[in-house]
Specification:
Blueprint lengths: L8 H23 L6 H10 L18 H12 L3 H11 L4 H6 L2 H13 L4 E4 L15 E5 L2 E12 L6 E7 L7 E7 L5 E3 L13 E12 L3 E2 L5 H38 L5 H26 L5 H25 L10 H9 L9 H14 L1
Parallel strand pairs: 1-4
Antiparallel strand pairs: 2-3, 3-7, 4-5, 5-8, 6-7
């Protein structure tokens, strides 16, 4: 029985062609950090009508739902996890805050370029001293005439150095209600980016430091009212967790593909119990992700459901990657073996968009709150 949610044929066909024509040919190079740059990948998606999946057609987007978005991210991650996280960030946390909280003039100024793939989007919340504790950020936005000057450092920013526009969280007053969101162009004076980090996995995804040294931002580039930044961030992370859940499902499914391919090629037996357990967990993770995505499409509360999907799917993909390495041994001992690549890629999914420890806190508190 198939558990995959039906996808509108045009998006499904575009996705299949994109994976075959762009993702698969570069997957091995992306795993070594030598493939397409993030902005080149987003442009390639834009050329196929996929860089604005969640954006309305009036801005050049595909007006797809979160279910279709999750299917797209899973399909990409099944072949290349690095490409999946680049596109996930661009499509969700990099652009959805603009759609949800932006003024008409802001939408018109930024969304067409994002939807076409001409501009790559990124989300800057995490700092060296505040990751899971988002409310503890210290980047400042100080009043400067009719605008602001942003000063501080962001860390582990996906698409850093490749992005054209960043959604940046900065403090305008003390406490969680003192955080505001800003739209910052990559060409802003005083904005600097570090070299992409050399990471354990996801080598093709650029992750780096964003330094704001008195960056001047006009009031017209504040996203939402002053003090709404925490709400903007939490809304973005809810949607982002659907994307990361889908990425994790794609990695897990890719692990199953590796095991079956290896067993058929070499004519050897596999641990049937372990294979069945990983398959069952992958199916369950896909269903949980689809459930959270459907709630998002219905504009229903889905914070707990997105956390459940993210927790279960990412734990599953790490388990699947470990199992794949075991069942593909000894070949999987090679650094470039697909199962070894997926094992290195999988771990990050338990950390970004809120660590899995944070997901457990969100879930448990929601249970007590009813």
């Amino acid at each position: 029985m198939s558990t995959e949610a039906p996808v509108a044929p045009p998006i499904a066909e575009l996705t299949a062609c994109f994976v075959d024509e762009v993702i698969r040919p570069y997957a091995a190079k992306m795993a070594r950090g030598q493939g397409l740059s993030p902005d080149a990948l987003v442009r390639a998606a834009g050329e196929r009508g996929l860089a604005g999946l969640l954006l309305p057609t009036r801005y050049g987007g595909a007006a797809a739902g979160h279910v279709e978005f999750a299917r797209f991210v899973e399909a990409v991650a099944r072949v290349c996890a690095s490409s999946a996280v680049i596109l996930d960030v661009h499509l969700s946390v990099g652009s959805e805050p603009l759609l949800l909280f932006g003024e008409p003039a802001q939408l018109q100024r930024h969304l067409p370029a994002i939807a076409s793939g001409r501009h790559t989007a990124a989300f800057a919340l995490t700092e060296p001293g505040s990751g899971s504790d988002a409310a503890g950020l210290s980047t400042r936005a100080e009043r400067d005439g009719d605008g602001y000057r942003l000063t501080g450092t962001k860390a582990f920013i996906t698409n850093c150095r490749a992005a054209d526009v960043y959604v940046v969280m900065a403090r305008t007053a003390p406490g969680p209600r003192g955080i505001s969101a800003f739209i910052v162009g990559a060409d802003s004076r005083g904005l600097n980016t570090g070299e992409p980090l050399h990471k354990m996995g996801l080598a093709g995804s650029w992750t780096g430091e964003l330094v704001l040294d008195g960056v001047s931002v006009g009031s017209a580039d504040r996203l939402g009212d002053e003090g709404m930044g925490f709400r903007v961030a939490m809304a973005a992370l809810d949607s982002g967790r659907i994307g990361i859940s889908a990425q994790a499902v794609g990695i897990a499914q890719g692990c199953l593909d590796d095991v079956v391919s290896s067993a058929r090629r070499d004519g050897r037996d596999v641990d049937e119990t372990l294979l069945a357990d990983i398959h069952a967990r992958t199916v369950a993770a896909r269903l949980l992700t689809a459930h959270a995505a459907r709630l998002a499409d219905l504009s229903q509360p889905m914070t707990r459901d997105a956390s459940i999907a993210k927790l279960y799917a990412t734990d599953t993909c790490v388990a699947a990657a470990g199992a794949a390495v075991e069942m593909c041994a000894p070949d999987s001992g090679r650094e470039d073996h697909p199962a070894a690549i997926r094992l290195r890629d999988a771990k990050a999914s338990q950390i970004y968009e809120g660590t899995n420890q944070v997901q457990r806190m969100v879930i448990s508190r929601s249970v007590f709150d009813g």
